[in-house]
Specification:
By secondary structure, the protein is an alpha/beta fold. The chain contains nine helices and nine strands.
């Protein structure tokens, strides 16, 4: 039995799976990551500033022009989204905690998704506080009625996280018997600190295109996450076909 087949069996046997996901999951749907050669930060001197509270307040036009490039409304959930949802829904517990702001995890299935950094597709007016369709936001950064500045409901640099989101993430991590870290360098704080809240008995599997540094025992699979989950899908279908029917 190969290493990945052993991991597949461990994933199937687990009762409560929580996935921690990052930009690498969305790359397979055609959405660029942030810091790679083809990432959205490439060639920019101060990319973090463009996603900061300061930029939004002091240079809203510059903020708006940058953030519009993060929208990929045509993108669809890929095999990673599908397999994670199927795996977690089959358990009836667990969930997905994602750094991604593209809502793709919610396109397929009904497993709980915690959007740690918010969502581009929830937009609201900072003056009247009314929610605005993201399609309208991409047409204008100003509310048509009150003239207030619209922004996406994402966590900007210099802003704090929602306590409810953080607390729910900690709960999910603590209850899991298996934690999957998928498509992330796992360097962004405080997301990477969530492992501090795992219980002593939970296993950790990392699936990423490069090795990451974490301080807990874990299994590492280096390669494209979509290839791993495509292989898992094939393995599960083959195993199901072998099961006797009644």
């Amino acid at each position: 039995m190969s290493k990945v087949e052993v991991l597949f069996e461990k994933m199937e046997a687990s009762c409560n799976v929580v996935a921690l996901t990052g930009a690498g999951v969305s790359v397979a749907s055609g959405i660029p990551d942030y810091r790679s050669v083809k990432g959205v930060y490439q060639g920019l001197e101060q990319p973090e500033y463009l996603l900061s509270r300061t930029c939004f307040e002091q240079e809203p036009h510059k903020f708006y022009q940058f953030v519009k490039n993060l929208y990929h409304s045509e993108a669809k959930a890929n095999i990673i989204h599908h397999e994670l949802q199927d795996l977690i829904m089959a358990k009836g517990t667990g969930g997905i905690i994602t750094q991604n702001i593209d809502q793709l995890h919610g396109q397929y299935g009904s497993a709980e998704v915690v959007e740690f950094h918010g969502s581009l597709y929830r937009c609201y007016c900072t003056k009247c506080r009314r929610f605005i369709d993201s399609c309208d936001y991409l047409v204008s950064a100003y509310h048509p009625n009150c003239g207030g500045i619209i922004r996406p409901d994402i966590v900007l640099y210099e802003e704090g996280l929602d306590d409810l989101v953080v607390n729910r993430s900690k709960e999910l991590i603590n209850q899991a018997d298996l934690i999957l870290i998928v498509g992330t360098s796992f360097k962004v704080f405080p997301f990477c600190q969530l492992l501090n809240f795992k219980n002593e008995l939970s296993d950790v599997i990392v699936i990423n295109d490069r090795s990451i540094m974490i301080d807990v025992p874990h299994e590492m699979v280096i390669g494209k996450a979509e290839s791993f989950f495509e292989e898992m899908n094939e393995w599960r279908m083959k195993n199901n076909a072998k099961k006797p029917t009644r």
